Amino acid sequence: MSGPLLRLGTRKSPMALAQSAAVASLIMERAGVQIELVGLTSFGDVSQADLAQIGGTGVFVSALRQCLLAGDIDLVVHSLKDLPTAGVPGIALAAVPARDDPRDALVARDGAKLADLPAGALIGTGSPRRAAQLRLLRPDVRPVAVRGNAGTRLAKVTSGELDAVVLARAGLDRIGHLDLITEVFEPDEMVPAAGQGALAVECRDTDPGLTGLLGCADDPDSRAAVTAERAVLAGLQAGCHAPVGAYAVVTDMLRLTAVVIGDDGAPGLQVARELLRRGAGRYVTVAAAHTSNGDDAQ
């Protein structure tokens, strides 16, 4: 394979390596370039503090972006649900590849579904959104804050420390553990996080040639959907660790569902009205129009 050698910075967790490798393969196949993975370690990877106390999953994003801006690497791949909505000067969102399954999944022992778990069951999750919606589905269960990579969380179920964990189905797929899933929550049961299942490819915006090259991995429908979902977070001035769910589906138009859940598991507000009050209707209309262009192109 000819062409330039590009350095893709990635965390060293199994999931980060898997998703970075998948995107690298896609870009190499479509653009005819060479890409090497460069493993990086951030403060978030070594700290045992609660993620919410050290800046949430954005701490991982920031570390990769710093290396990108310093010129140590040429591109990065993030889980898009972890990406803060505010842009960073000097960095371009070059591509949003075709989105994987956005749903949440339960992993419990003995094939148990949520309805099968006993009252007071301990369910691990690092997401306030998931915890709040679990309380809405089963007020008698006890969501427990956990952190660590997917393997660490799954091990807590195997050991009996937890009765179950809730993780993104797409993440479990990327590390080869779909077989462990005991229940998948449909979006009308548990509204996914904005951008869940999607990946983001970033590079420096000072190199339009590279931005254009990486655009070969972009999927217009996926970009339009996650753009609308992230508009919910931006419009509510909420971070990726707020108990906010947002899910957009692209067909002949873009349909957006969003919810805010209170700590007690009750809906916090009518998100659609709030977004319209803030003028988000104009933004979603633009995204839908962009999607129509993408459909025509395909």
List the topology elements:
Elements: E1 5-11, H1 14-31, E2 34-40, H2 43-46, H3 58-69, E3 75-79, E4 91-95, E5 104-108, E6 122-125, H4 128-137, E7 142-145, H5 150-158, E8 164-168, H6 169-174, E9 183-185, E10 199-204, H7 208-214, H8 220-236, E11 244-250, E12 254-261, E13 267-269, H9 271-277, H10 280-297
Parallel strand pairs: 1-2, 1-3, 6-7, 6-8
Antiparallel strand pairs: 3-10, 4-10, 5-8, 5-9, 11-12, 12-13
Give start-end ranges of low-pLDDT stretches: 43-57, 283-298
Name the helicity range. Answer: 25-40%
Helix/strand structural class: alpha/beta
Q: Tell me the fraction of residues in β-strands, as a range.
A: 15-25%
- Sum up the overall morphology in one term: globular
Distance between the termini: 28 Å
Mean pLDDT: 85
* Order of strands, widest sheet: 2-1-3-10-4
The value of Rg in angstroms is 19 Å
Can you write the helix and strand succession as a string? Answer: EHEHHEEEEHEHEHEEHHEEEHH
Main sheet: strands, sense, barrel? 5 strands, mixed
Question: How many individual helices?
Answer: 10
Number of strands: 13
